[in-house]
Write a structure and sequence with these properties.
With about 425 residues, this protein is an all-alpha fold. The chain is built from 17 helices and no strands.
Length: about 425
Amino acid sequence: MSANQPGATTAALPWAGHGLGSTGYRRVLAALACSGVATFAQLYSVQGLLPLMSRDLGVTAAQASLAISVATMGLAVAVLPWSFVADRAGRVRTMGLAVMLATVFGLLVPAAPNFEVLLVLRALEGAALGGVPALAIAYLSEEISPRHAGAAAGAYVAGTTLGGLFGRLLAGPVADLAGWRVGTLAVSICAAAAAAGFLLLAPRPRGFVPVHRGGFGAALARLLPQLRNKRLLALYAQAFLLMGAFVSVYNYLGFRLEAPPYLLPASAVALLFLAYLAGTVSSRAVAGLAARFGRRNMLLASTAVMVGGLAVTLSGVLPVILAGLVLFTAGFFGAHSIASGWTGALATSGRAQASSLYNLSYYAGSSLVGWAAGLVFQGAGWAALAAALAVLAVLAAVTAAVLLPAGHPQRSFR
């Protein structure tokens, strides 16, 4: 019986989710697109500015990368606390609070008097931002029809690529004209507008059921099943290893291309992030391909594209390096789209916690690998860095091949 038939009541039927093309579906995706801009534009806006910050603040490349690492580590540490808050307060309300707090800290970053204060503010900004990616997939899973949740997750990941791209493209040219502080300020102002868009567009939650029972023990009980599930652990390994490789490439490629023989300015380095558009396309495309060929197969194929792209960046010819970056980026976002969406599908309970653990792994990889890779780059150069990151990607692929089910293509979403 449908909700439109006589005798059917809203109370008698579980929420089936917004269907593809409905007003609610479009509003959910538009709201999450705004949250993606507010989150990822701020989180990574300084990435293209690291060489400028390194010179201005008198720090090394690896030290400058801490401006990214402390923010992503703050996010990683905060995702679980945010998930427990959201279990009581609701996904939309919690995400709104998170983006507003992050915007306040983001507006303070340009005023940091020294590198140490800058790192503290970036860590706080990252911790506030943890409330968005921690909950976005859980929110989608609750509000979007299960038939279309995978496609919606792909669309959300595509939106996050645009948010990250926007922040980097805006910060680079502004920084060339007025310095890195004004560049980051411009991004934070735009993020504030995007945060307002999220609050206005997000529809009233209908699939959320508050969790009021228990304290720490009950929270731990919702967390432990996710840590005992080998398939979820395999997806968390994908997040850590692949994101670590991805952020490392974007952290240090700018240093390579600002040095001889390339000597690119900050505004040109910012254009490297146009490669994110390949991720915008691939993150949506793999959803349809996974329905045909299976999620594991597409995850492994995407990882192989990443490794191939890394190999191409070993060239000394600038256009070839850029082509490798495009391949690498497309592969990463394809893999991330598959893994993040699969996490929500595998978690039958504690969905917010499962999503948060994925994000904890994702941003822990960004922080730890992103920093350690700088030591490799400083000590041995780009070829050694690319080889080390390729090893991480192969480890991720082996983990996926061993622990994740192949399944029938049409049934591989669980």
